[in-house]
Specification:
2 domains; single chain; 11 helices; mainly alpha
């Protein structure tokens, strides 16, 4: 295959300067190769964010159009794949904001409760831990996705951006148009709510996630607290 038609090598330690030069020169075969290489990952992200195949494909088109128009402004400080991923997330968030939505359902009934002595109340299990053992990987991934989709939109988005898409807190906050502190609080509540839903669905052992209330209240921004909330998401391929 000639250099003019060779697909871009994403996610590898290669010099992307020649690729950028070809894209900025308007090489149609290079841009087509870029679209082919990047589309699967971007479309997966957009499907998670938008929960609509039609909207996801529309946002994918908007992503590449925005990228093409912004090529001259791209300084190459991040990899092309990372840059496209950020554009796709912004396209998804813009589409979400444009939707007419009913007021969000409250998240409070999914947050942990505490008894009179300050001990955390364990959520009763749904189908039980045995059901988790019976689920194959694909069914488990689908069940976790379903639980994530049941979160209120503002909490679902911050959870997806931080724990699934891998954005940092500051970057997620900027994308959502909120302060870093607000993003941290939403994320903490989203993780707690997701944990409740997973327990109710029998996907998580309620006893295994118990924690003292003082730790829950002061540990939202601590690394160990962040890890507890998404133990069932990571490694599921969601």
């Amino acid at each position: 295959m000639s250099n003019a038609t060779q697909a871009p090598a994403f996610d590898r330690a290669v010099d992307e300067a020649p690729l950028l030069a070809r894209l900025r020169a308007g090489d149609p075969r290079c841009f087509e190769a870029l679209v082919r290489s990047a589309s699967p990952r971007l479309l997966a992200t957009l499907r998670r964010m938008l929960r609509s195949e039609e909207d996801a494909r529309d946002a994918l088109q908007e992503t590449f159009l925005a990228a093409f128009r912004s090529l001259d402004a791209f300084e190459g400080q991040a990899r092309l794949s990372t840059w496209l991923h950020r554009i796709a997330i912004n396209a998804a968030l813009m589409k979400l904001r444009s939707r007419r939505r009913h007021p969000e359902a409250p998240i409070d009934d999914l947050l942990p409760g505490f008894d009179a002595e300050g001990h955390r109340l364990l959520e009763p299990g749904g189908r039980g831990v045995d059901a988790e053992q019976a689920l194959d990987d694909e069914r488990r991934r689908a069940a976790v996705r379903c639980c994530i989709d049941r979160l209120p939109e503002s909490h679902r988005c911050v959870l997806l951006l931080r724990d699934i898409e891998g954005l940092g807190t500051e970057e997620a906050a900027r994308a959502l148009g909120v302060s870093a502190d607000a993003a941290k609080m939403r994320l903490h509540r989203a993780r707690q709510a997701l944990r409740t839903l997973l327990v109710r669905e029998g996907l998580l052992d309620p006893a295994g996630e118990a924690a003292a209330p003082s730790e829950e209240r002061r540990g939202a921004s601590r690394p160990e607290a962040r890890g507890r909330g998404v133990v069932a998401c990571r490694g599921t391929g969601v």
